[in-house]
């Protein structure tokens, strides 16, 4: 039997950056890890990350094609910066991304012709509702894994602001019509979704198969547990928050929770990250009398973040609008237990063996729940250690990047060959991966929900 030839793959995305983190890191993982498997791989990405990528992989620059920045991008960025983050993203941010996709599509079509590329993969944006222009590019298109279709917890919708929520709802309704003009998702050969919530956010009348695959993965070389267990004492604990300081991350919840704990209990909080909420959060820290217990570190390079994670006793993630939450997987890989809001992404990753999930029934319930969970773990160092080990075992078993790339190669081969996705292609080597829809199956009417 002749050996299978791996199809040539082109990754196309708005950003590819380990420095930006979040979803921007996903295209870079695919590009570098596919190349590491000997797959002929190209990357089309905006030039804003050119300097970083040249530093990370100078030997691969001949395979990276940059979308040039332009005056329209700059105007959109300036206008969007004046608006609430979510509103700016779906208005001026989206307009800028569409302009970039027009140029990206031109580059992709040329590369497909010149190099005989077998599969075009657009891993981001991860939103299932954002239309795509990657259609009729000369090769079958894979999109995702996507993770989105989020809303705030019902009891916390006031956190987002009524006007913003109405605009977001209108934008979601409008997106279904825009998909008729920008047909990338409707025409894609394969749509990857992280969960059923995301699947219900896909546009109607998609032609391709839909496979469930978690979008985030673990870099097990970077996110390592501490080599020697810290000698934890009952009552003391070092908490870590790692992420952007934006309103929906709700870091104020954790600050107030720490403020409810005994002042001499030995619980401290390190906050790594930056954003528009940093000043208000620092002011709240002073107001609560927590300056000696809370430290703001600002943005740190990823290796320093990994070192901070290794030295933490627990990660806290009070987010109210977290679709994914890669930081949860990073904590699990580092053997660190997690206290998180029971909403969105953390529910996909955590169970009772490795995390404590707080129901967002009200703001005060969240503060009280985080305070109680922190107090419990602070007094039980043995429980922290057991949860950390369980989390690492779960992360390595379910979310390793190498396993994800193996799965993707199987799917790429099926898509490039033009054959339907079968159960054999998605036979789960990991419980997180499963087929949720075969080609041309009808979707339920719930697809129309926002």
TrEMBL record:
It comes from the Bacteria. Gene3D superfamilies: Glycogen Phosphorylase B. One of its GO terms (molecular function) is glycosyltransferase activity. The keyword Transport does not apply. Keywords: Transferase. InterPro entries: Glyco_trans_1, Glycosyltransferase_grp1. The keyword Transferase applies. Pfam families: Glycos_transf_1. This is Glycosyl transferase group 1. It comes from Aureimonas altamirensis.
């Amino acid at each position: 039997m002749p050996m299978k030839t791996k199809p040539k793959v082109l990754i196309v995305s708005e950003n590819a950056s380990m420095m930006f983190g979040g979803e921007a890191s996903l295209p870079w993982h695919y590009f570098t890890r596919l190349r590491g498997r000997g797959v002929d791989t190209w990357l089309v990405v905006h030039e804003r990350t050119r300097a970083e990528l040249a530093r990370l992989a100078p030997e691969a620059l001949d395979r990276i094609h940059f979308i040039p920045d332009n005056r329209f991008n700059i105007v959109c960025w300036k206008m969007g910066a004046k608006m609430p983050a979510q509103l700016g993203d779906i208005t001026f941010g989206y307009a800028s991304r569409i302009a970039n996709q027009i140029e990206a599509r031109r580059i992709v079509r040329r590369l497909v012709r010149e190099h005989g590329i077998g599969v075009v993969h657009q891993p981001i944006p991860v939103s299932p509702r954002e239309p795509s222009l990657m259609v009729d590019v000369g090769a079958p298109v894979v999109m995702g894994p996507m993770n989105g279709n989020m809303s705030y917890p019902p009891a916390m919708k006031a956190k987002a602001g009524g006007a913003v929520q109405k605009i977001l709802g209108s934008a979601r309704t409008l997106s279904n019509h825009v998909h008729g003009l920008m047909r990338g998702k409707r025409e894609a050969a394969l749509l990857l979704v992280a969960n059923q919530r995301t699947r219900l956010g896909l546009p109607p009348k998609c032609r391709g198969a839909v496979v469930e695959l978690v979008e985030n993965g673990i870099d097990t070389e970077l996110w390592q547990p501490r080599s020697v267990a810290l000698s934890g004492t009952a009552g003391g604990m070092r908490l870590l928050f790692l992420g952007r300081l934006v309103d929906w991350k709700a870091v104020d919840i954790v600050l107030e929770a720490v403020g409810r704990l005994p002042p001499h209990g030995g619980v401290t909080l390190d906050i790594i990250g930056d954003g528009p909420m940093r000043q208000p959060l620092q002011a709240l820290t002073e107001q609560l009398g927590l300056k000696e217990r809370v430290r703001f570190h600002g943005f740190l390079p990823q290796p320093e973040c990994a070192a901070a994670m290794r030295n933490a006793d627990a990660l806290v993630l009070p987010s109210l609008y977290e679709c994914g939450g890669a930081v949860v997987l990073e904590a699990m890989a580092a053997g660190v237990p997690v206290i998180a809001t029971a909403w969105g992404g953390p529910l996909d990753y955590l169970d009772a063996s490795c995390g404590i999930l707080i129901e967002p029934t009200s703001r005060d319930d969240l503060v009280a729940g985080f305070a109680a969970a922190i107090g419990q773990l602070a007094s039980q160092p043995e429980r922290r250690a057991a949860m950390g080990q369980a989390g690492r075992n779960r992360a390595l078993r379910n979310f390793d990047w190498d396993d994800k790339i193996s799965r993707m190669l199987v799917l790429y081969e099926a898509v490039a060959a033009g054959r339907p996705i079968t159960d054999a292609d998605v036979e789960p080597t990991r419980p997180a991966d499963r087929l949720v829809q075969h080609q041309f199956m009808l979707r339920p009417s719930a697809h129309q929900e926002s």
